[in-house]
Q: What sequence folds into this?
């Protein structure tokens, strides 16, 4: 008999997540499933909860919220499994947040009814987990969906400050605001498994999933269990050129552009020769002015209900 621990962020989806609790409780009770709903109380709380429950036998941890909640639970489960040789932690997702980009990349629908059925009927499938070291996390932080550097990260920072605009609309407005500011590009050396890239990019995206900001398909063909990141790097150009590139990202057609490099690698080392790096991982700030990053793919590190 499995026990389901639903770690729910009550403020996810601008507070709408808490309103779904009766529906979640009714489903588990109707299906005779042993469960407990635990509410997060502050940033980082889900990491502690997932680390605790992830080490308990026969427990399935459920992330109920958005990308931030999923990211914290992934971090907690990775800490719980560190140094162990037993079965990998299993988790599921109830995508009741705003963006739900991680759920999209994991092929999880964003309807609560469908998500609950997946929790009951789904089978555990191996999933890769990324780790980024640098900035505010010299010892590393894990991520499930992807890392954004430069324009992508700055757009995310802008969108996070928009209280009355949600989901993809906030990212589009954030992108337009960032285009107006148009910060200077750093000069980077990017080491990949295929060689070293020297470039002055507007943005660098390193994806385990497929989409960022609910709108931008940074890795339209990304696969979460192949042991590789999909990366794309768009060169700094004129505003109009970058706007055109961003429109391509909304369609996932950027790979055909002359100003964009794409590839795949299981590890990347990024060093700012000049300038600094604004970086996020799964929407969580890694740094606003970093200079060195190491990003590693941990193949099949966790199991996710699919």
A:
């Amino acid at each position: 008999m499995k026990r389901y621990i639903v770690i729910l962020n009550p403020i996810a989806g601008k507070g709408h997540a808490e309103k779904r609790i009766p529906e979640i409780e009714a489903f588990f009770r109707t299906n005779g499933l042993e469960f407990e709903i635990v509410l997060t109380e502050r940033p980082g709380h889900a990491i502690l909860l997932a680390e605790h429950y992830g080490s308990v036998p026969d427990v399935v941890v459920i992330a109920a919220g958005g990308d931030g909640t999923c990211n914290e639970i992934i971090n907690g489960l990775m800490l719980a499994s560190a140094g162990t040789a037993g079965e990998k932690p299993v988790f599921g997702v109830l995508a009741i947040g705003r963006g739900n980009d991680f759920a999209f990349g994991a092929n999880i629908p964003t309807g609560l009814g469908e998500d609950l059925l997946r929790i009951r009927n789904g089978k555990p499938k191996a999933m890769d987990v990324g780790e980024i070291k640098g900035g505010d996390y010299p010892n590393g932080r894990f991520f499930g969906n992807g890392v954004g550097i430069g324009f992508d990260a700055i757009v995310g920072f802008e969108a996070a400050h928009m209280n009355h605009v949600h989901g993809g609309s906030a990212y589009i407005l954030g992108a337009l605001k960032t285009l107006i500011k148009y910060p200077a590009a750093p000069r980077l050396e990017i080491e990949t498994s295929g060689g070293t890239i020297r470039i002055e990019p507007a943005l660098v995206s390193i994806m385990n999933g497929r989409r960022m900001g609910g709108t931008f398909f940074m890795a339209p063909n990304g696969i979460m269990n192949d042991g590789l990141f999909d990366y794309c790097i768009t060169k700094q150009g004129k505003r109009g050129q970058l706007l055109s590139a961003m429109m391509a990202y909304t369609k996932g057609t950027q790979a055909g552009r002359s100003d964009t490099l794409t590839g795949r690698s299981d590890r990347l080392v990024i060093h700012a020769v000049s300038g600094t790096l604004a970086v996020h991982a799964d929407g969580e700030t890694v740094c606003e002015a970093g200079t060195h990053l190491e990003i590693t793919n941990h193949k099949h590190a966790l199991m996710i209900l699919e």
